[in-house]
Amino acid sequence: xxxxxxxxxxxARLHRAGFIECERLNVNANKLDExxxxxxxxxxxxxxxxxxxxxxVDVSFVHELPRLRRLDVSANQLDNxxxxxxxxxxxxxxxxxxxxxxxxxxxxxxxxLPQTLRELRISLNDLx
Length: 128
Description:
By secondary structure, the chain is α/β, with parallel strands linked by helices. The chain contains 3 helices and 5 strands; from the N terminus they run αββαβαββ. The chain starts with 8 loop residues before the first helix and ends in a 7-residue tail after the last strand.
């Protein structure tokens, strides 16, 4: 299903929707330009943010999602700096196992990848 959720007003709606025990949240193919901070349930183990308009990810989101194991930020507009900042912050998560960074715009392999990763997807970037 393709929605057109954008940042701003929709963030409050996610929080009020009552997803207190939600473990997986898919907001792929929307118009988000930022991670909806303060609206995500701490019970999430998987967050899918693919095919949005993210140019960076506010790294403080890791403090809201201590159980996160899977993060998909593919098909966004993350550059080298954004990917590096994201990977550094993910090191604070002890359970992160899967990270999809495919189809972004970074040119170098991200630094400080979490050692807990079991799967990393980085296809369709401009790696040099």
